Amino acid sequence: AVIHRSEGVIGYIYCDFFERCGKPNQDCHFTIQGGRRREDGSYQLPIVVLQLSLAGPRASSLPALLSPGNVDNLFHEFGHAMHSMLGRTRYQHVTGTRCSTDFAEVPSVLMEYFASEPRVISTFARHYKSGEPMKKSSVKALCDSKKMFAASDMQQQVFFSMLDQVYHGQHPLQGSTTDIMAQIQKQYYSIDYVENTAWQLRFGHLVGYGARYYAYLVSKSVAAKLWHTCFKQDPFSREMGTKYREEMLAHGGEKHPLKLVEGMLGQKPSVENMVEALMLDLDDNLQALDT
């Protein structure tokens, strides 16, 4: 149960964290019951599932320990879950993550910034036996390690987005999907294509998103702007958290994403300021590594 200190229970999250036989090997969030305004004025509480594929304890004396990647995925999917919990829409088919794809990944990508922030990690990262917190130097090293290839990661996202656009663009394609992939990779990515490989056949987002994979870059730019403007100075700010809930998460798909972002940041998104936000993020990563 998700409990607000004055509003009481505002929704429920089923946590299905561990791998088991027959379970899809996928980290995701999905809705069992969307929130909605009932005819009598009461609110139907949202019910969602937060699904991960964590390995269970390796021995009876050990708990299930999470890798840094597991923590990132947990925070990411929890961002989706909180979007559903904090949505307060009139209709359930537009609540929480049931919104424009261009905005759907913003809350989850924003949570990744919290998962890479030393002040946040220090609140929970402790030795499973002694309870001793991680050393500050270790926390910084962990956070810095996530920033080392940020530019390469962003370039890869540009490559994936362009490939998605071409695959769903003008047909017939001028060659096989592998031929097209090799050509786009050469044009947009600095790492060469490896002959006789066809990883695109296992990249489900090319089907599930269908010409909308670019939404990850759009969401990344909005999340970067949110982090640096609203949460970087104080990731535990209740004032900013409340504003974020009321201006962005509460509206789901009832309000246009442009209006959501403008209401939160006081600035209407444009190609120019979205690119600027991505570049600011890269510069900030570089500065953090230099120190």
Structural class: alpha+beta
Q: Briefly, what CATH class of the domain at 149-290? A: Mainly Alpha
Task: Quote the average pLDDT.
Answer: 92
Q: What is the spatial order of strands in the main beta sheet?
A: 1-2-6-3
Could you describe the 3D structure shown?
The chain has 291 residues and is of the alpha+beta class. It has a domain of 142 residues: Orthogonal Bundle (Neurolysin, domain 3). A 4-stranded mixed sheet has the order 1-2-6-3, with helices on one face. A two-stranded antiparallel ribbon has the order 4-5. A hairpin with a 5-residue loop joins strand 4 and strand 5. Helix 1 packs across helix 3 and helix 9 crosses helix 12. The termini are far apart.
Write a brief caption for the model.
The protein has helices spanning 68-86, 101-104, 106-115, 118-121, 136-145, 150-167, 177-188, 205-208, 215-231, 238-247, 257-265, 271-290, and strands at residues 2-4, 8-18, 28-33, 36-37, 43-44, 47-54. By secondary structure, it is of the alpha+beta class. InterPro entries: Pept_M3A_M3B (IPR045090), Pept_M3A_M3B_dom (IPR001567).
